[in-house]
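We recall that each integer encodes one residue's backbone shape. We quote one record:
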Amino acid sequence: MSEYEAFASAPSYGWSGRPLGLTGSPVSIRLRPHSHSRNRRILHMEAARDETSDHDHLRGPRGTPLLDRIKDPSDLRRLARADLPKLAHELRWETLYAVSKTGGHLGSSLGVIELTIALHYVFRTPEDKLLWDVAHQTYPHKILTGRRNRMHTLRKRNGLSGFTKRSESEYDVFGAGHSSTSISAAFGMAVARDLSGRNFNSIAVIGDGAITGGMAYEAMNCAGYLGNRVIVILNDNGQVSLPTGTRSAGGVQPSSALSVSTSRLLTSKPFLDIRSAAKQFASLFPSEVKDVAARVDEYTRGILTQGGTLFEELGFYYVGPVDGHDLDQMVPILENVRDMPGNKPVLIHVKTEKGKGYPPAEAALDKYHGVGTFDVASGRQNKGSPKNPSYTSIFAKTLIEEAEEDRKIVAITAAMPGGTGLNLFGEKFPSRTFDVGIAEQHAVTMAAGMAIEGFKPFCCIYSTFLQRGYDQVVHDVCLQKLPVRFMLDRAGLVGNDGATHHGTFDLAYLGCLPNIVIMAPSDEVELQHMIATALKLDDIPSAVRYPRGNGLGLDVMREMFGYGLEGMEKKGKALPVGRGRIIKSKSEGPVATSKSVAILSIGTRLLDSVKAGRALEERGIPTTVADARFMKPLDTALIRDLASRHDVFITVEEGSIGGFGDHVLHFMALEGLLDTGRVRFRPMVVPDRFIDHATQEEQYEEAGLSSGHIVSPSSG
């Protein structure tokens, strides 16, 4: 195993280093800063063996002379085509080093280095519209479009977004973060172009994961039918789910029949060989067979390999497969497509490797999809050992324990087995684990069908992604009152992924629906109880929402919530539906003021609510803190009690306007609890705007939901 020594501090931006030898004999690495024309320190990595080239594609470059010349894509287009592979080498290591200091989506960005260069080289961006589906793979795009000197701010407060963002750059023509949207948006721009008589190309880059989403096919169906020219780049890296390879009912292959089909195509002979062989075979066949053989060129992209015809039948001209890391092949193909006459939409099938060029990423199951900061030389991520388990892992552990006793429990996810914890469930129960790809609508209705047949489906989807299956929640689950259990991970504010990934709307969009029980745990013990509660609800849908991050730990729960001897080793117990609990009762006896405050929290803002309650008591303000547990049904008896005994009533939630606080206010108004004006009501919610990327702590401060903010309206 290679050993490395690192002696350097990080520059603020820019990568110009010679990294470890990535193959062959072990090497020893020394990192040292040296001067630069722009007075910035640059890491220099020297291998202890001889080098044959400053741009050996198995090593990082000594410097970045080509990349230094590029301020925007117009500079890129001034380079000779022969320089592009060297530029790709520099850009790959620039991206690698930048992400090592900030964390982020690394593997997908490393996989599209050459493709990004080729697209900006061939097309005249931003006049030509380049759209990236999901857009977590756009770090190289950002570097080439004038944001290189800000990469050190990636996913930080007031810094660069981890996705495309229209307000950030004119080259980000369409914002993204969720999947399967790029073809629709690119096609809309193409239609608008043709209606207005303008002349530009509209290009959508979509991965083999995102293209599993039904919206992508809706867009291709429409594009083929209307016949407006749009160019679709299918970036096929075989990574449909996160991570691909999770054990499930479909085995360990990508969760997509299309991906299996395109993989078969990619492992077949190159098309030119197939066409040449077909011509040779035709001369040997009888005339009846020659008629069929004459159509091979049209169908060779599908009949022989089951790949191209699907797209062709949708009205697209199919080109591929193309090696997405071979610029000598890719650039002329893109130029030919760019210059093709006619209006027929085109799909170019590009094969890439996620994590390309960085062995730790190439070897990892998730291809270093999402990483924290890490050491470039070793690939080791700087992840401290968390003191407490994450809510995601607690959910997975609890569901596994329940499933060991109940064979009717099944689990469904939409391409996020790792993020939801179902990779762990799949290891134990592969035949009861269903990864349906990026297809939330299908996941929800599939769960409804399984519920009808007597199974107990747990539909595990990020809060922000369940928005994509909302009609199915309404029509296929709640309207029919089917006992689907929705497990909504990443509820509330999620941190560095930012506005596209916050789970702040679920209480509002689920709370307005009849026939559903909605729960939000304040801590990890409560999460166990709520999973047990959902399991017992066999006649109604239910939802449990819980945040990203780690639990509080028993010491904190005992100190702040008054827990006894119960611990995480015990199984959860079903809770009385619609019943909350009082965590801290207000002090009785002489106080400095007659005012008293009730704080009713739902979810994990309970800890800050208790802190606020203690701070208010120190100021002489009697304060009761309660945990609602349920949004639907509300604990109306608890609300009446709190309203009758306090002067100020505050609700606290990690959700938007229209959620829990509005439901409480609605009940109190209808019950006449506010008629006399004795009780002042103050709902505390996430502000009515999108909150950008930052740490979760920074975001909750910005949202005004920390303990200090709770104290302010209480004492006002």
Summary: The domain at 391-558 is CATH 3.40.50.970 (Rossmann fold). Residues 1-58, 265-269, 271-307 have pLDDT under 50 and may be disordered. The first helix runs from residue 65 to 68. The chain has three domains: 67-267+309-371, 391-558, 578-711.
